[in-house]
Design brief:
The complex is a heterodimer of chains A (233) and B (100). Chain A has 11 helices and no strands. By secondary structure, chain A is mainly alpha-helical. In chain A, helix 1 runs parallel beside helix 8. Chain A is globular and about 55 Å long. The two termini of chain A are 23 Å apart. In chain B, helix 3 runs antiparallel to helix 4. The longest helix of chain B is centred in the middle third of the chain and has 24 residues. Chain B is elongated and about 60 Å long. The chains are: A mainly alpha (233), B mainly alpha (100).
């Protein structure tokens, strides 16, 4: 695939293992909640293998669990996946190998791999950072999901406060986005819309209206970091 | 959860990643569009948080989940590890239900 530099590769392995622990925990939580929302073990695993975007996966399960339609669950999850297209743009020079390796690498373009790779200045180091971290994190997320889905059957979500697990996890994922002014505006808009419209719309629809908060991005921002990491793909 | 939803979402999520990495490549995209796309998670995650905390179906409800959310918000803002944040938030909700 690419020429790795062994000493530097070790640095990326240890960084990936630290993030990988968070991925296992988060992936396990996803597996438990997915099965609790009515997904089969196979469906939970296929979501993690193919969607491989934590926020989208949690969002689809959260909307379905609340009784939303598949269409609105799909819409919200796809909108959340749009940022990966932006990361893909940033990572395109890093994935500059054969078409087959580009297509494989594309699946692993997420917050964390983009952050690790773009933190390096040297192009070959960027490739090493990506190709070392990507398979480790992918394995961690999917093993966590399988474990969570397998134990998920035996747990009643509300008995252990697990219905609070959704907002708690989304909060951990949101905080990095609140460090810019436009991020705070978009979050305020989305958060208010979601509750204010709830009594008047079918479940799942207010989430899509909340997405209009993205247009706060039309005004420029000077302190915006290119990539945020939140501990999930 | 239906297989149609699972597979459609898998295909769409991959297509979005490949669009940037393989199809568009190094060609320029308007910076304003990039900024908007990167703001989507802020708007949607906040919407999901308030939905999951304050609503039950179409009704607005305030219950023990609010305490879990507050605990998680403080811990996340102080950059506590993810696992600690989740266990503390979920634990606080369960504890309040137990004593209330």
């Amino acid at each position: 695939m690419n020429h790795f530099r062994a000493p530097e590769a070790r640095r990326f392995v240890s960084a990936s293992l630290v993030i990988g622990v968070a991925f296992v925990v988060f992936g396990t939580s996803f597996g438990v909640l997915a099965v609790g929302a009515g997904a089969t073990v196979a469906q939970a695993c296929v979501l993690s293998l193919f969607v491989y975007t934590g926020a989208s996966q949690m969002s689809v399960v959260s909307v379905i669990a609340a009784g939303g339609s598949p269409a609105s669950a799909f819409g919200g999850a796809v909108l959340l996946a749009c940022r990966n297209a932006v990361y893909g743009l940033a990572m395109s020079p890093v994935l500059n190998g054969r078409l087959s390796s580009r297509l494989l690498g594309a699946q692993w373009v997420i917050d964390e791999t983009t952050a690790l790779a773009t933190a390096e200045h040297d192009p070959s180091m960027r490739r090493t950072a990506f190709w070392v971290s990507a398979p480790i994190l992918y394995a961690a997320w999917n093993l966590g999901t399988l474990a969570g889905a397998l134990v998920g059957d035996s747990i009643d979500p509300s008995a252990f406060g697990l219905d609070a697990a959704f907002p708690v996890m989304f909060t951990a994922m949101l905080v990095p986005h609140l460090r810019t002014r436009n991020g705070r505006r978009a979050a305020l808009f989305g958060g208010v819309m979601s509750v204010a419209l709830a009594p008047f719309m079918p479940v799942g629809l207010p989430i899509l209206v909340a997405a209009f908060g993205m247009f706060f991005g039309l005004s420029p921002e000077h302190d915006a970091p290119p990539v945020r990491t939140d501990g999930a793909p | 959860m239906t297989w149609t939803l699972v597979l459609l979402l898998g295909a769409s999520a991959y297509a979005l990643k490949a669009l940037g990495a393989v199809v568009i490549g190094d060609r320029a995209v308007p910076p304003a569009l990039q900024r908007c796309l990167l703001l989507i998670p802020a708007a949607l995650l906040a919407a999901l948080i308030t939905k999951d905390t304050f609503t039950s179906g179409q009704e607005i409800v305030v219950d023990a989940r609010l305490v879990g959310l507050a605990v998680a918000a403080v811990l996340s803002w102080r950059r506590a590890p993810f696992a600690l944040t989740v266990f503390a938030g979920v634990g606080a909700t369960a504890l309040l239900r137990l004593v209330a």
